[in-house]
Specification:
heterotrimer; A alpha/beta (250); B alpha/beta (489); C alpha/beta (430); A: 250 residues; alpha/beta; 6-stranded mixed β-sheet; 12 strands; globular; B: 489 residues; 11-stranded mixed β-sheet; 10-stranded mixed β-sheet; 23 strands; 34% strand
Chain lengths: 250, 489, 430
């Protein structure tokens, strides 16, 4: 593990309902890097994302996940967020009756409290969230609406990006954030991701299309097949995959 | 944010267990335990009541003797020994306070602990301008103090304890008392009629919009006392009042009985908004102690186009048996019932409403949200009835239940009885588990499990909570979270 | 209950004693319960929408055989077998077993119990005085066993015709058992003349693993009849029970379905249509008990009432603590065609498991004026338009009736009912 290691996954084996999905997966991501994991449906990409985020029912039978030098496997999902992890959902969940604003403020204060910081004042929060929403071209109206309720696919993903910007994580794991987006929405989302890039942060993109990678240049591309990473390379690997298909590349 | 800083701060202090479980050390004036005609006479004499009221009480008592305790609700509790209850308890020092300064300071401290801003300068002020709340506090059986009386008087509003009203406005009281909930209405109502010790009387004159929200805090203090308060609100033609009721009781090992009666009457074009946050002591984790909350609340929409809106947030009590109802007798009158009932541990709640459509073009809305956690049982029970002469009736009912634990129960027992074809009655109900996806989503954004549950539950209850006055909404929201504590995991 | 009433029924009990010895004890115990509880009153929670005063005021003797042979109506669809009862007694001479006897075992209740005295313990005693009296006084019925794997394609029709049975009653009991993977459709029909008789019938069915029982009830009793019917069904793993109750006849009619889903993946679909003409009362009860995980139930009920007609639906879904992943739905809609019509509903949920999806919806109202206008604005006369809308309204509850013939026969009856309403309205207007 290098000194600036952000995420280190070693020999990870994960079962869901007693069925092994991840079968000894290794992954090293350093600060400042953007990685992309590509793979077909059922390869285990979402399982990896959910396991990193700490979802119940994803049973780690072997291996370790070290985030910023800390073993996070024993941490609760919200504690991992406190440590600086963010999961962008493939299917963001609707929560009727809870406004987006209230949701984000509670989340942000949860994270701040975890870090021993004071709650953010209502005024500062509004300033912050308005700015982030404007960057991502999200209307003020959508902030007041119930979380994801009645949002289109694109709006939901945009909402994920606003939440990411507000929580400002060290590592963002974005699960199929590009699916279901038209080209304009895709560009906006890509801008959001690029804005999150810095020397101190890292991003893990999970996708099965090259499309997003035209707008977000990855440093490393991994190919995942049947619960393992079978090949890693530069961004040219993504183009190769698009061209030849998974079977030939792997 | 909504609500006042004061309320929020007070609520924020609350940690863990039942906050309101302190006992106030005030010397009590009590009648002997048990119930007999002599006790009824004793209560009446203590309050120097006129003969007609004593006779009224005795009639109720005699009727009660012949009645049977209802057993149709989905609640179980050991038999109540009516001879082991003090039916009357009053703070001794308090004869008749002329001002707040004369009130036992111990009492005032208690209200402070409760977060009731009894003193005028402590009155809650909402964000949008100064909203005033007048408080009538009922400590065990006697109304202790009424604030803001002067200002209300100017508007012609009568807001006082019912025992005072009996003396000061005998004609009004006599005219309306028992007209909505008759003495023989049910077992607990009859009991209340016989022994009610105090409560609140409100009269809003014609065309008056009550200048502030009226509020009563009920509190049961003495051991083994039943609280039998009685509330009577009359809104004369074209008037409006919003009334808030909050209830708390100290922690005790024994069960305490609370059998209140609330009667509301609206004349032509009048409106009453009645909000309750019920936070009686629910008993401990093993179901020891707690209040039996057996309450009869009913509104008579007597006048044309009048309206009554009940909003309740029920988080307390060991056993709740309560159905705030509307008799829609005036043409075009409107009844509403918005309810959140949370049960945890071994609590049992059987609550709902009755909407009786007697007149043409009457409308009603019922929104009920039940949340069951721990090993509790939570039942919605309701009746929508349309009588033959009531043309053009509309009703919409929605009852949703959310299950937070696998050991609790959620039940829905609606009755719909329609005898007029022009009615449009719609009823929907769902029961489901708290969603794993929602929980994980919240947790993946940094909320711990209890915060996540509280947030989802609050979202689930939104349609009801938005009908609460601002001051109550904040407190109620916190209460929801609090009452679900320990229910997760 | 009056002494005369209880003495009458006690005499009926004595008359039956010894006829099927294995039943004697069952009868005595059931009668004791009946004597204690009597007939349910409108005050009893489960019976608040049915008025049984006829039963409380009149004495109903056991119905005798009809004097002259009653006319047996024709079949309404192709059947695998036709089992005929008159005045509650099985008529071998009028029945047609078709090929059914080769594939399955069919025999009258008495024969079954004489041959298997120990099976008397299978008999359900029931939940109230009505069921208790049926148990005490049952005389006849059919026992139908479909062996494992046997699929009977066409419906088996069981028809009871009441004739000249004024102030008389029949208490019948049918037992149906489906072996693993067996399939059977039962069409139960009830017909009668205008005398004031009482049909009190219970069907018990056991649907074992993977079996499917479809049960269509077409109730066309005479206009002065009391009809009380209960079905008690248990469903095993991956088994299914579908029933549709069409309630058209009788003065006071009540049907109850009590279904227990005992093993994983069991399913019940309980549907019903009731049309209440002047003075009629139709009460339908559907009670589903989800005992085990992954069980599913669905209820669709539609009722229509005209002048002084009264309908009621009482649905209850109970989900036991262990019955996780239960899915249960209940839909009730009532249409009131007249100022004096009445509809009642009590759609109840009682849930003790948390991982469930249960819902119900109920609406009560008159015909949609907008829809009516839309149809008439397209050139359809108002009478036809009303008829179309009522038929469309009831149709939702008929969709699970198997076979086109049978479905059409039921729909024809609903059209005829509407037509009769139209005719009588025209007559009274004239």
């Amino acid at each position: 593990m290098s000194v600036n290691s952000m995420l280190s996954v070693k020999d990870l084996r994960v079962s869901v309902d007693n069925k092994e999905i991840l079968k000894g997966l290794d992954l090293e991501i350093n600060a400042g890097e953007v990685h992309a994991i590509m793979g077909l449906n059922g390869a285990g990409k979402s399982t990896l994302a959910n396991t990193i985020a700490g979802r119940d029912d994803y049973e780690v039978t072997e291996g370790t996940i070290t985030f910023a030098g800390k073993d996070i496997l024993e941490l609760e999902p919200h504690e991992r967020v406190g440590e600086g992890l963010f999961l962008g959902f493939q299917y963001p969940v609707e929560i009727p009756g809870v406004s987006n604003l209230n949701f984000m403020r509670t989340a942000l204060n949860g994270v701040r409290r975890y870090r021993g910081e004071e709650d953010i004042s209502a005024a500062d929060f509004m300033k912050l969230v308005r700015a982030k929403a404007a960057d991502l071209k999200m209307s003020a109206d959508m902030l007041k609406r119930f979380v994801n309720v009645g949002f289109s696919g694109g709006e939901k993903k945009r909402n994920e990006m606003v939440q990411m910007a507000v929580l400002d994580p060290k590592l963002a794991v974005l699960d199929e954030t590009d699916s279901g987006l038209d080209i304009d929405a895709l560009k906006t989302v890509a801008e959001g991701i690029n804005a999150q890039r810095s020397n101190d942060t890292a991003i893990l993109l999970i996708t099965h299309y090259q499309r997003l990678l035209d707008y977000v240049q990855p440093d490393v591309v991994h190919v995942m097949i049947d619960g393992k990473i079978v090949k890693s390379g530069g961004k040219e690997l993504a183009a190769e995959l698009e061209e030849k298909g998974y079977a030939d590349v792997a | 944010m909504a609500g006042t800083q004061e309320t929020q701060d007070q609520v924020a202090e609350i940690t863990g267990e039942y906050k309101y479980g302190f006992v106030t050390d005030v010397e009590m004036d009590m009648a002997p335990k048990g119930l007999s005609e002599d006790i009824v006479r004793f209560i009446s004499a203590k309050k120097k009541e006129p003969e007609w009221l004593l006779e009224w009480r005795l009639k109720a008592y005699r009727a009660w003797l012949k009645m049977e305790e209802p057993d149709w609700a989905k609640v179980n509790y050991p038999d109540i020994d009516y001879n082991d209850i003090y039916f009357y308890a009053a703070p001794k020092s308090q004869d008749k306070p002329k001002s707040l300064d004369e009130v036992d300071p111990e009492l005032l401290r208690m209200y402070e602990k409760l977060g009731i801003p009894l003193r005028e300068q402590e009155v809650l002020a909402g964000v949008e301008g100064a909203r005033k709340v007048a408080v009538d506090a009922v400590f065990d059986s006697v109304s202790v103090a009424t604030t803001f009386r002067e200002e209300l008087k100017k508007a012609g509003v009568i807001f006082m304890s019912i025992s005072e009203a009996v003396h000061e406005y005998p004609d009004l009281v006599k005219k309306y008392l028992g007209t909505v909930v008759p003495q023989r209405d049910n077992y607990f109502a009859a009991l209340n009629c016989a022994v009610f010790s105090d409560g609140t009387f409100v009269y809003i004159p014609k065309g008056v919009r009550c200048p502030m929200e009226l509020s009563t805090y009920f509190r049961i203090n003495a051991e083994n006392t039943g609280q039998f308060e009685r509330t009577l609100i009359v809104a004369d033609e074209g008037s409006y009042v919003s009334y808030l009721e909050g209830c708390t009781a100290p922690m005790r090992d024994e069960n305490q009985l609370h059998a209140a009666v609330v009667e509301l009457i609206t004349l032509d074009d009048a409106e009453i908004k009645y909000s309750t946050v019920q936070n009686w002591y629910p008993g401990d984790k093993d179901g020891k102690g707690g209040i039996y909350n057996f309450v009869t609340k009913r509104a008579l929409c007597k006048g044309k186009n009048s309206k009554v809106s009940w909003t309740q947030v029920e988080t307390g009590s060991a056993v709740t048996w309560k159905y705030p109802s509307c008799v829609l007798a005036g043409e075009g009158s409107v009844g509403e019932f918005y309810s959140v009932a949370v049960t945890n541990n071994l609590q049992q709640a059987d609550t709902g409403t009755k909407m009786i459509h007697m007149a043409p073009n009457t409308r009603s809305t019922i929104i009920s949200k039940g949340i069951s956690a721990g090993r509790s049982q939570n039942c919605y029970r309701g009746l929508v009835k349309v009588l033959p002469g009531a043309e053009g009736v509309r009703n919409y009912t929605q009852c949703d239940s959310l299950l937070v634990s696998s050991t609790s129960g959620a039940h829905t027992v609606p009755y719909i009885e329609v005898k007029n074809p022009s009615a449009q009655i719609e009823h929907e109900a769902t029961t489901s588990k708290i969603s794993e996806d929602q929980l994980f989503y919240c947790r993946a954004r940094g909320l711990d499990e209890e915060e996540a549950v509280a947030m989802i539950v609050n979202g689930f209850c939104k349609e009801v909570m938005q009908h609460l006055p601002m001051e109550f909404a904040v407190e109620a929201q916190k209460l929801l979270g609090l009452s679900l504590e320990g229910s997760v995991g | 209950m009056s002494d005369i009433l209880s003495d009458t029924y006690r005499n009926q009990l004595s008359a039956l004693t010894g006829m099927i010895p294995s039943l004697d004890d069952v009868r005595t115990r059931a009668f004791k319960k009946f004597a204690e509880t009597g007939f349910p009153s409108a005050r009893s929670e489960d019976w608040r929408y049915s008025d049984l005063k006829t039963l409380r005021k009149n004495i109903f003797e056991q119905a005798a055989k009809p004097h002259s042979d009653a006319t047996i109506p024709a079949t309404i669809c192709k059947t695998a077998a036709r089992l005929v009862f008159t005045n509650g007694q099985y008529r071998e001479d009028l029945s047609d077993l078709g090929d059914l006897w080769q594939a399955a075992s069919i025999r009258p209740l008495a024969n079954h119990l004489m041959a298997n005295p120990d099976r008397a313990s299978d008999l359900v005693h029931g939940n109230d005085g009505i069921a208790a009296l049926n148990t005490a006084l049952m005389r006849d019925g059919l026992v139908l066993n479909i062996p494992a794997g046997v699929e009977i394609d066409e419906p088996v029709e069981i028809i009871n015709v009441m004739s000249g049975a004024a102030e008389a009653a029949t208490h019948t009991r049918h037992l149906i058992e489906l072996g693993e993977g067996a399939k059977l459709t039962v069409l139960e029909r009830f017909i009668g003349d205008d005398s004031a008789y009482w049909v009190n019938t219970i069907m018990q069915a056991r649907v074992t693993e993977g079996a499917v029982l479809k049960h269509i009830r077409l109730q066309e009793e005479g206009s002065n009849a009391v009809h009380t019917a209960k079905t008690f069904v248990s469903v095993g793993a991956e088994g299914r029970y579908d029933t549709c109750n069409i309630s058209l006849g009788g003065l006071v009619a009540r049907f109850e379905a009590h279904v227990r889903l005992l093993v994983d993946e069991a399913t019940a679909n309980i549907d019903g249509v009731a049309l209440a003409a002047t003075g009629q009362s139709h009460d339908m009860v559907a009670h589903v008990d989800h005992r085990m995980p992954n069980t599913t139930s669905d209820q669709i009920f539609r009722t229509v009432a005209e002048a002084r007609g009264k309908t009621a639906f009482q649905g209850k879904i109970v989900v036991a603590k262990d019955a996780q992943k239960t899915i249960a739905d209940q839909s009730f809609k009532a249409l009131l065609l007249d100022r004096t019509a009445e509809a009642n509903a009590k759609p109840e949920l009682e849930i003790f498991a948390d991982d469930v999806k249960c819902s119900h919806g109920a609406t009560i109202g008159e015909l949609d004026a907008k829809a009516l206008f839309y149809l008439t604005s397209r050139g359809i006369d108002p009478v036809t338009a009303r008829q179309m809308l009522v038929e469309a309204f009831t149709d939702h509850a008929l969709l699970r009736i198997p076979g086109e013939d049978l479905g059409d026969a039921v729909r024809d009856r609903i059209s005829a009912w509407m037509q009769a309403r139209v005719n009588s309205a025209t007559e009274s207007a004239a």
